[in-house]
Q: What sequence folds into this?
């Protein structure tokens, strides 16, 4: 089986990074879900659900008459998500180990969501075909994905620019596309979706967790960057240190990659 060439370290540590990322993304992701048509009673699938943060929100949105399935290829994160769902008392959400590139889901969902997953896949069109087939007629697809070409900092920080370059190169080496965002409408149309809409958001701030995303992610792609000989371990260590220093400097502006939101319907 072809494995997803995920460039970011997973497991328990990866879960904690995703927890921070989910908190940063929560306001815009919830707004997107409301805009795209999520409602009580829906059956939803969250592809690449990680530690389950967005699936938990979906479970609240669809209510006790709805149903949410979160899928991921990282068995550690799936087990953590199951435990957290139980601790939260959520009985309308479950988590499965599924590879969206390989596994063909049944046509049983009203909404399919994926955040920051297609960017990692050598064949995103295959994943979208599976998402299309997972939806009942009239079902909604909701995609959030990145465009690293929109990365910026203020004042200009060479470490931030170098991090964005290394991330983009590492993704490309493993068959992904760190700038997939603008392609989303075309990919959705090719998969057969209609009524496609698009929006752009970019979490940005002068303090708080949004500024930690860059150094955290640089830490978590370090193994891939060094393995692919894109940088030495010494450069990576220095870069991580500089990124944390920038993030902790008052009044500097840090951001996440530009995020493209795209949604549509299965006819």
A:
């Amino acid at each position: 089986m072809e494995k997803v060439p995920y460039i970011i370290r997973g497991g328990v540590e990866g879960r904690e990074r995703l927890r921070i990322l989910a908190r940063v993304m929560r306001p815009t992701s919830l707004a997107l879900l409301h805009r795209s048509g999520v409602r009580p009673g829906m059956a939803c699938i969250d592809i690449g659900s990680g530690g389950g943060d967005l699936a938990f929100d979906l479970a609240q949105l669809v209510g006790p008459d709805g149903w949410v399935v979160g899928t991921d290829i990282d068995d550690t994160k799936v087990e953590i998500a199951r435990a957290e769902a139980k601790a939260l008392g959520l009985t309308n959400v479950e988590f499965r180990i599924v590879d969206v590139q390989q596994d063909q889901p049944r046509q049983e969902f009203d909404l399919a969501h994926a955040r920051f997953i297609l960017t990692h896949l050598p064949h995103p069109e295959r994943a979208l075909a599976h998402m299309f087939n997972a939806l009942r007629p009239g079902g909604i697809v909701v995609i959030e994905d990145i465009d690293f070409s929109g990365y910026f900092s203020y004042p200009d920080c060479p470490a931030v620019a170098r991090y964005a370059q290394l991330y983009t190169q590492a993704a490309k080496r493993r068959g992904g596309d760190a700038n997939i965002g603008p392609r989303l409408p075309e990919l959705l149309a090719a998969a057969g979706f209609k009524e496609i809409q698009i929006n752009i958001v970019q979490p940005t701030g002068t303090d708080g967790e949004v500024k930690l995303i860059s150094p955290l992610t640089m830490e978590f792609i370090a193994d891939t960057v060094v393995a692919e000989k894109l940088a030495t371990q010494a450069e990576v260590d220095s870069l991580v240190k500089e990124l944390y220093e920038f993030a902790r400097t008052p009044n500097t502006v840090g951001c996440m990659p530009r995020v493209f939101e795209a949604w549509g319907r299965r006819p």
